[in-house]
Amino acid sequence: MTATPVSLCANNAYVIESNSNSEVALLGGTPAFTEDLCVGRPNVPDRSAFMARMNAMFDSGRLTNLGPMVQEFEKQVARIAGTRHCVATCNATVGLELAISALGMKGDVIVPSFTFIATVHALWRQGITPIFCDIDPVTHCLDIASVEAAMTSRTTGILGVHLWGNMSATNELHDLAQRKGVKLLFDAAHAFACGTKQRAVGSFGDAEVFSFHATKFVHAFEGGAIVTDDGDLADRLRLMTNFGFADEDEVLHLGTNGKMSEPSAAMGLTSLEAMDSIIAHNKRNYAAYDVALKAVPGVRLQYRSMEDPHNYHYVVTEIDESVTGLSRDELVAALRLENVIARRYFYPGCHRMEPYSSLFPQARHTLPVTEEISRRVIILPTGQTVNEADIGRLVGRIAAIVRRAREVRQALAECEDRRIPSFTRRVEHPVNADAEA
Ligand code: T4K
Question: Which residues of the chain have pLDDT under 50?
Answer without folding.
Answer: 1-21, 431-437
